[in-house]
Each structure stands twice: as C-alpha cells, then as structure tokens.
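An example makes the point: we print one protein in full, the chain in one-letter code, the fold tokenised, without further comment:
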Amino acid sequence: MRELDAIAALVVRDLRGFFRSRSQLYSSVFFPLMLLAILGAGVQDGLDPRNIDDYVTFLTPGMIVMTALFSSTFSSATYYQDRDSGILRVLFAAPHSQRVILLGKTLSSVVIGVAQALIVLGVAAAIPAIHFHWQYGVVRSVALTVLGVVLLNLFLSGLGQLLASRIRSMQGFHLVMNLVLFPFLFFSGAFFPLDQLPIWLKILGRINPLSYGVDLIQASLYARDSGGYLGVPVDLAVLTVLAAAVFYLGTSRSVSLER
C-alpha cells in the first residue's frame, strides 16, 4: 500500500504540473485536431488519395496516435526538470524502489495520453463528416483504442527514458526525439496506407513500432472488416512486448545513472 501511495502521489504531482502549463495543454489537444481539419479536408478535396474511402476518417487514428507522442514527450521533459533540479535524487532516496518512482512518473503521461486521445476521439465522433464504422462495436472499439494508447505511451516513455539517459541537455533531447519520432509517425500508416508505398518503405513501416498502434486503432475505428490489416492479436502482442522491453531498458538505464 505504501508503494501504491507513492505512485499515486507522483502521478498527481506530474498531472498538476501539466494542467498548470496551459499552452502545452491547449497545443497538445488542438494541434492534432487542427491537422485533422487541414490535412483531412485539404488532402481529401485537393489530392483525392487513391484507394482510401473517406480520408478524413482514415486520418483520425493517426491524430490519436499523435497525442501519445505529445504526452510521452511531456513525461520525458519532466524527467529532465526533476533531474536538473535535484528532485529526482530526493525521490530516489525515498524508501521505495527506484523503478516504482519511475513507474509513477510514467503513469502520469499514460493518464494524460488516454485523456487526450478520448478528447480527440470524442470531438471526431461528433463531427458529421467523420464516419467511424466501429468494427468491434462502440464499447470494444473504444476500449481497444484506449489500450493501444496506453501501450504506445509506455513504449514511448521508455524510449524517452532511454534517450534521456544518454543525452544530457533537454534541447538536444527534443531534437533527437523529433528526429526519431516524427519519421516513425509518418511511416506508420497514419497519413497514407502502407500498402501503396515502395517495397523498401513497406519494410520500414512493418518494423516501425507505431505502425502497430495505428493499425490497431484503424482496425477498431475506421475499418469495416479485418481485411488488409495486421490484426488486433498481432498488434497487441507486438505493442505489449515492445512496451515492456523498452520501458524496462529505459528505467534500468536511468536507475543506473542515478546511483
């Protein structure tokens, strides 16, 4: 119970910091919605993507995945703030495992990522131009979407911890995160189907961890059936393994540096 209290206290602390930063709160929600409006309307009317039925609806899962990127970046930024201010050493001196401390900090980004994803999903579902097919029913499709966002946030937070343990400045960290994550996003099937790409880009798409999150959410919200998708069992298996492995490696590296 003492460890659960410690985790809860850390989650509440980071959530308070996030909600005090209004510019970050607004940008993390409105930016993906803005892209949804601009790319959805602009590309659908101007470029007429091939083999995509209702591009603005197709784009929505990608915008939900983008919220996971924002929340994981926020989580990693707080790691730098706590480390540079000395708070992280104070927290590690508490009578709890250092992994418990890092898990508590990471869960705040998971809560924020899920909340943002539900906001984007709720707004998108209320827009008449967006037509979800809810392949597994509304409740199960939403549950799968939330589960996908949770696993993505755990993976991205672990990746952020791994990079933060090797990069000593926050400015350098953000540059590397953008260099790594945005190619991940653009070659994940979030903006265009992977099956229309050249073979070498298809291979990159298949080894891209974000592709499995996008595939899971697209299959749940956008698709009428499972044809042409990797499949929910495959997506969940890959995301679970990657999230556990990368989060473990990231926290192990962070703990070893603080000893």
